[in-house]
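Ticket #472: bound-state structure for arginine.
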Amino acid sequence: MAQLWGGRFTKETDRQVYEFNASIGFDKRLYHQDIEGSVAHVCMLAKQGILTSDEMQSIVGGLRSIREDVESGKLVIDDKYEDIHSFVEANLIQRIGDAGKKLHTGRSRNDQVALDMRLYTRLQVLLVDDLLKKLLEAILNTMEEHVETYMPGFTHLQKAQPTTLAHHYGAYFEMFKRDRLRMYDIFKRMNFCPLGAGALAGTTYPLDREYTAKLMGFEGPTLNSMDSVADRDYLIEFLAALSTVMMHLSRFSEEIIIWNSNEYQFVEIDDAFSTGSSIMPQKKNPDIAELVRGKTGRVYGALMSLLTTMKGLPLAYNKDMQEDKEMAFDAFDTAKECISLFTGMLATMRFRGERMAESAMNGFTNATDAADYLVNKGVPFRDAHGIIGRLVLYCIGKNTSIDALTLEELQNISDKFENDIYDAVSLKTCVEKRLTVGAPGPDAMREVIALHREYLAEEAEWLPDQSGWEEE
Ligand code: ARG
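RESOLUTION: The complex was predicted; output attached.
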């Protein structure tokens, strides 16, 4: 057992209590952020004359050597310490002696952990944004290739109207683009530095919080020291945004599973992204899509868990907040892996354009267009709807489609039908005529695709500015 406190205790901590309380098992992944925060803190302490320049240099050197040794595997983060903060501080003191004991001047583990978690989460926001951008690129590549690949559009999972693969994918482009916008919003809102809040009420040392904030690329310091150590909103927002990403991935997965089924055969998932069955030799299963759909629950779980942890907490820090980490880390890892695998699966999937077009032709997806045809011939829409309804019923009885009927059969139902009906209800016409913004008509679609290309070419302008370190 190795802990930073003990002066006011007369007994050793019970072993089980120690283990229950410790967080090193999972907060060890914050080592990089913990060291970065400590380096910024001591640079500021020296600038303010609270530490000498020699002390600062010795501490910074020690901290950097710890980081190098952890990264090279020479130093293993040992579970005998209570948490990552204790591990780094104890190691520093072992390496540089008494100067190391000054690292924690004007700081508490409460503002320290608030900073570490915020730095770590900020990095995850950027990583997720980057993965989402790659996913959008894969989606857009498919859209460009399939502006004229016809397929049925569904409502209630019943064939509704014809559309194109580009249009269907375009819906997901919008979803994941909104997800990226959420990343941007979260980043902007969270990018303030809690360090210097101390345990809860600031400190009596003349800290320069603007300076530490700037060194680490924050917009500025947080403005209330109690809120600084008690706030996990940014994490809740990020988990909510990740839950939304997962919900989108899960819906897309569900569609791919359906499209890949023997009944549909709209797509074929690449062998590299499929798995087999131990008993049924013929099987090729869409396990990746199923797992992405399945893992969505874990990410929702992390969000619900943290919302519940936070809901009854009085200000300021409470140990309950240590529970912000494990499930959040799992959610970060899960979401990133899912986005990345899903992108690979999409990029390698093959489409069966003929199957899709055939399916679009067979399900009366042109019934609305047939009704619109009658409207153009002067029939009120409600009457046209009734006429086409009867026509569909007639086709079902004959096991045929509207475009396969003879003109005589059509005219038996309405004398408004003429020879131009066949062109009006062809799949191509049905899609091509849909030219309003956001519709699948190829000309409308190409304009939207061009906008998406421009959007993806833009560079993110909101990355943290860490140029402050140059002054060091
Ligand atoms: N392991 C703790 C956490 O994750 C660090 C902060 C500890 N602070 C304290 N006052 N015990 O929240």
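RESOLUTION NOTES: The pocket of arginine is lined by residues 23, 27, 83, 109-110, 113, 317, 319, 321-322 (CB under 6 Å).
TICKET STATUS: resolved
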